[in-house]
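It is worth pausing here to work through a concrete case rather than discussing structure prediction in the abstract. The textbook approach is simple: state the sequence, then state the predicted structure, then interpret. We follow exactly that order.
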Amino acid sequence: MLDTGTYLFIVAVGGVITLVVGQILMRSGIGFLRDVFDSEETAVSANRLLGVLFHLVALGFLALISTYRPFDVQGTVQIVITQLGGVMLLLGVLHGLTLLLLARIRSRRRSETIESEMTAQYEQQRRARQNPRQQVIEGGPPSGGASH
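Step two, the predicted structure:
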């Protein structure tokens, strides 16, 4: 059983690592989200929300990991290193999941943009093809006032 000081040390170091990784994600993620969203405000808001999500999940797991001992190791230093290794593995997984989420958001957004552009082009081409038929049906090209 570890003493309170050791647990607090694990939580403090894990918390610092979590905050550093979270800041890296937030600083790098804003550029990524600007590419995804048309609005700067939306990109900043989404970045903050993802940052909060990352920090809450990571700090919650950190609190759980700090008391969990999956390996039977002896000595305070070995236990601290094992616990911090678990924290770093968790942060790596969370970092990867966050990147996957960002990539999925960007992919979906790009698909929606391509789809709307293709739909607009199709509609424009359809209207261009309909205009000559309408002119024949209506008796010729529309003119400014000359009538038969």
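Step three, interpretation. The mean pLDDT is 81. Helices lie at 4-36, 40-65, 76-138.
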